[in-house]
């Protein structure tokens, strides 16, 4: 992907243009689809979530993951957050029981998302979009805008999670990069379990990170 395109991936206008000009109809996947993730979810994730868990998919885009988590995972309280009205218009008719919220995941309070509202924040490639798909091998080379955007996002995920809530990140980025950006001031993330590889070795290996907001910590007074 060209650097000029990558630099625009944190902008709503970029995604609106992309979804309106896409030739293939939704849903479309970044990384692994539900079929590839189901075994991992069934073994390591679902057993820890109640059947009525409230799940937020930030930057859900045109992924079918939320649809399949509802149909095959059995979770019915699902909200997808997107700042592209074009993709919301495409996706909402596919499953009217899923709630769609137009917002910026770096400031969900502006769209009325309250603190301590969700049991799970499930991110598949939203974190990477904020990074512009441009990770550097050395932490000192991360552009300031990526540090600012990803940490604002992490703080928002922390805020909207209930005490004991889970933050699941599916990404191709390495642990040191994920932890450096997401474990930041204003958060107190606990590791639920060690990062897990979900695809074959290589530059684009997909990994899962599961973080948790401490069970004794609320953020209601931040609203």
UniProtKB/TrEMBL annotation:
Keywords: Methyltransferase, Transferase. InterPro entries: Lys/N-term_MeTrsfase_sf, Methyltransf_11, SAM-dependent_MTases_sf. It comes from the Eukaryota. CDD domains: AdoMet_MTases (cd02440). The keyword Transport does not apply. The keyword Transferase applies. Residues 58-169 form the Methyltransferase type domain. Coiled coil: none annotated. SUPFAM superfamilies: S-adenosyl-L-methionine-dependent methyltransferases. Belongs to the methyltransferase superfamily. This is Methyltransferase type 11 domain-containing protein.
């Amino acid at each position: 992907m060209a650097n000029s395109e990558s630099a625009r991936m944190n902008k709503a206008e970029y995604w609106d243009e992309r979804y309106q000009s896409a030739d293939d109809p939704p849903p479309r996947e970044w990384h692994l689809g539900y079929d590839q993730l189901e075994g991992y979810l069934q073994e390591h994730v679902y057993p820890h979530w109640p059947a009525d868990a409230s799940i937020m998919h930030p930057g859900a885009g045109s992924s079918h993951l939320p649809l399949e988590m509802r149909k095959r995972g059995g979770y019915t309280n699902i909200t997808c957050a997107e700042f592209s009205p074009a993709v919301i218009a495409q996706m909402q008719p596919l499953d009217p029981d899923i709630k769609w919220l137009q917002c910026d995941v770096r400031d969900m309070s502006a769209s009325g998302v309250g603190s301590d509202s969700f049991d799970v924040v499930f991110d598949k490639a939203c974190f990477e979009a904020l990074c512009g798909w441009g990770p550097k091998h050395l932490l000192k080379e991360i552009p300031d805008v990526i540090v600012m955007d990803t940490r604002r996002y992490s703080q928002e995920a922390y805020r909207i999670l209930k005490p004991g809530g889970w933050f699941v990140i599916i990404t191709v980025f390495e642990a040191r990069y994920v932890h450096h950006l997401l474990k930041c001031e204003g958060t107190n993330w606990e590791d639920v379990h060690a990062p897990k590889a979900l695809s074959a070795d290589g530059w684009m290996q997909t990994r899962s990170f599961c973080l948790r907001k401490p069970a004794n910590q609320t953020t209601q007074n931040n609203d």
